[in-house]
């Protein structure tokens, strides 16, 4: 077996050089759903070059999730005005590592970059809107995949202040977790961390079904205090994830043809 080194986000991962037809890989992933296999299926697929497929390459479309109150959709530079309003709010970014964009142009650039990551890399970013109103009120994303065969997906999220404490992020996290376990058969664990002082985030994660594991010392850089901060780690495992038999998923899934 030949091994190939793939460079991603500065880290080097050894992956099996394995070329299988798409249908065969999909069938084996489907078969593997629901139990932890001896040799875990990769969350990521490889393309014909042996490199990692982006989500766009893999699905050819963007997964739009419509939940009870929300639409989780693709976002881009066209959403910059709304997005900028809340990412430049110091209260929204107080527990985060990044500064929040300082100008609308910078926000536009960042949003365009984020969309590109869906097309070119392995990031799954959803913009959050309220049903019937296309304006972005927040976002949630799988921003990195870690661990053996990238079986761990890490979530990040933010919401504009005017919509806090209405259960919106709980609903969005539940949708992202369900999508992860039901549409990415190699995913075994979904995790998220939050600053120990970020009670709202910890509560939303708990309400969405994630369990607290402990405190990671100096895990996050904090923009406001310019210091490392302890974070709480939360996770949910595939074997803990269960949708009652016959129950509908917490969203309606539509694959939206992407621009390319
Ligand atoms: C964290 C965040 C996404 C939560 O979103 P949200 O939609 O308001 O979350 P939910 O309403 O689903 O759940 C929040 C819960 O925390 C509670 N809460 C909020 N602030 C609280 C506080 N200071 N003390 C105790 N409980 C608090 C709310 O009452 C709610 O619980 P309840 O439903 O039992 O009443 C949102 O506050 C936010 O965007 N913050 C800024 C960005 C951020 O910190 N992102 C997360 C990084 S890890």
Question: How is this structure best described in words?
Answer:
With 260 residues, the chain is an alpha+beta fold. The protein has one domain: Aminopeptidase (3-Layer(aba) Sandwich). Helices cover 25% and strands 33% of the residues. The strands form two sheets. Strands 9-10-8-7-6-5-4-3-11 form a nine-stranded mixed β-sheet, with helices on both faces. A hairpin with a 5-residue loop joins strand 6 and strand 7. Helix 3 packs across helix 4. The protein is globular and about 50 Å long. The two termini are 35 Å apart. 33% of the residues are buried. The N terminus is likely disordered. The structure holds coenzyme A. The site of coenzyme A has 20 residues, from strand 7, helix 5 and helix 6.
Distance between the termini: 35 Å
Task: Write the CATH architecture name.
Answer: 3-Layer(aba) Sandwich
Over all CA atoms, what is the radius of gyration?
18 Å
Q: From the 3D structure, determine the CATH topology.
A: Aminopeptidase
Give the strand line-up of the largest sheet.
9-10-8-7-6-5-4-3-11
Average pLDDT reading: 85
Helical proportion, percent range: 25-40%
Q: How many β strands by DSSP? A: 11
Structural class designation:
alpha+beta
Biggest sheet, open or closed, and with what strands and sense? 9 strands, mixed
Strand content: 25-35%
| Helix and strand pattern | EEHHEEHHEEEHEHEEE
Each distinct ligand: coenzyme A
The shape, in one word, is globular
Show unreliable segments: 1-19
Q: How many separate domains? A: 1
């Amino acid at each position: 077996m030949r091994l190939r080194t793939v460079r991603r986000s500065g880290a080097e991962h050894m992956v099996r050089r394995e070329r299988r037809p798409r249908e065969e890989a999909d069938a084996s992933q489907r078969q593997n759903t629901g139990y932890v296999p001896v040799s875990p299926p990769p969350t990521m697929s490889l393309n014909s070059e042996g490199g990692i497929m982006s989500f766009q390459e893999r699905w050819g479309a963007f997964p739009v999730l419509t939940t009870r109150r929300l639409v989780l959709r693709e976002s881009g530079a066209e959403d910059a005005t709304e997005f900028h309003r809340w990412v430049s709010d110091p209260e929204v970014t107080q527990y985060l590592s990044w500064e929040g964009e300082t100008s609308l142009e910078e926000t536009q650039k960042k949003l365009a970059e984020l969309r590109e990551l869906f097309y070119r890399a392995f990031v799954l970013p959803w913009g959050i809107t309220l049903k019937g109103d296309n304006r972005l009120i927040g976002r949630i994303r799988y921003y990195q995949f870690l661990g053996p065969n990238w079986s761990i997906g890490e979530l990040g999220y933010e919401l504009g202040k005017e919509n806090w404490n209405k259960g919106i992020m709980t609903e969005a996290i539940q949708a992202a977790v369900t999508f992860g376990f039901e549409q990415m058969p190699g995913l075994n664990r979904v995790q998220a961390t939050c600053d120990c002082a970020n009670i709202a985030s910890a509560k939303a994660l708990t309400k969405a079904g994630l369990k607290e594991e402990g405190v990671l010392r100096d895990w996050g850089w904090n923009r406001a205090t310019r210091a490392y901060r302890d974070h709480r780690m939360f996770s949910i495992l595939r074997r803990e994830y269960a949708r009652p038999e016959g129950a509908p998923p917490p969203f309606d899934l539509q694959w939206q043809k992407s621009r390319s």
